[in-house]
Amino acid sequence: MSTAIADLNTVINDYFDALYHCDTGLLQKVFHPKAVYATADETPLLHRTMEEYVPVVAARVSPASRGETRNDIVDEIQLAGDNTAFARLRCTLAGNDYVDFLTFVREEGRWRIMAKVFQMTPAKEKGV
Question: Can you give the pTM of this predicted structure?
Fold first, then answer.
């Protein structure tokens, strides 16, 4: 495994931990301050800056505090050079399944998420 892939896996694990624990400090560590958060699941398209997204996570009841089972999966990581990468992830939070497309940039040797675009499938659509 290349050093870049190992480093990206570390950031991805921190990302999953941040979501599971609603840890905004860790969330801000893995996201670039100028990152974009978006989904086309909502009309109109939902788009947030990090300044808008972090308080949303802070206001949530964490899946960890509810005793939810973690279901974090890394489907793929692709490198597009020395400083750009992409990952396709899946996780389950609050009864919803998510597919996350994360774009990473490496700045001063540190990988961070520059964009998160996701798709959510609510439990009711899965017949649960």
Answer: 0.91
| 108 in Cβ contact with 7 (< 8 Å) | no
- Name the H helices within 22-114: 24-30, 50-58
**How many Cα atoms sit within 13 Å of 21 on the Cβ side?**
11
Extract the tokens encoding 19: 């979501």
Closest CA to 47 of 37, 33, 55, 57: 37
Residue 125 has pLDDT above 90, yes or no: no
Closest CA to 71 of 121, 7, 2, 30: 121
pLDDT tens-digit series, residues 83-109: 999 999 999 988 889 999 999 999 999
Alpha-carbon distances of 81 from 26, 58, 85, 88, rounded to whole Å:
26, 34, 7, 17
